[in-house]
Amino acid sequence: VSLDGYNRIYWSTVSEVNSDYFIVEKSIDGYEFETIGTVKSAGSSQSLIDYSFNDYEQRNETVYYRLKQIDQNGEFEYHGPIPLDFIGKDKLSISPNPVNDYLSINYPFKKNVSYIIRLRDLSGRDIIKITKYNNSFLNHVLVETSSLKKGVYVLSVESIFGFEQQTIIK
């Protein structure tokens, strides 16, 4: 998500086996990538783990990020690339779109405010409804979407400060 002065990159794993670390890479054109940092991984896990990395070289244009996940034996696998549009600090951003098993919702949620996150079908029926009270500096929510049927949905974030929505595809 594009925030005030930096981009925060989020990802999650649902299981890890002998994982060592992640290399975060960035590109301006989506083809040539450079390493911008590393994040230590959990190693081995069978539960959901959220990760993040802050990129303080923010550009006023679309940039691309990808992850290189390195195992303890040196083997590696790439994930991405994912484009990130510069949208300023107060915008809703979702990824991936089209969505598979999990939807990452990035939004500058304000501290001590209640939010309602809704995923609706095109008839307006709530498919997923999450009510969150942000008592920390939350700006990322991961929603499981593996049970969604193929189709078009509308995701919205509502609070006393307003309402934002985006269309997603499964």
Question: Would you mind describing this structure in some detail?
Answer:
By secondary structure, this protein is an all-beta fold. It contains no helices and 14 strands. The protein has strands at 2-3, 6-13, 19-27, 34-40, 49-55, 63-71, 76-84, 93-95, 102-106, 113-121, 126-134, 140-144, 152-159, 162-169. Strands 4-3-6-7 form a four-stranded antiparallel β-sheet, with no helix packed on it. Strands 11-10-13-14 form a four-stranded antiparallel β-sheet, with no helix packed on it. The radius of gyration is 17 Å and the shape is globular. The model has no long low-confidence stretch (mean pLDDT 87).
Strand order of the largest sheet: 4-3-6-7
What are the segments in which pLDDT stays under 50 over at least 5 consecutive residues? Answer: none
Average pLDDT figure: 87
Structural class by secondary-structure content: mainly beta
Order of helices and strands: EEEEEEEEEEEEEE
- Count the helices. How many? 0
Question: What's the gyration radius in Å?
Answer: 17 Å
Shape: globular
End-to-end distance, in Å? 21 Å
Largest sheet: 4 strands, antiparallel
Oligomerization:
single chain
Beta-strand level of the residues, as a percent range? over 45%
Please tally the β strands and state the result: 14
Helix content: under 10%
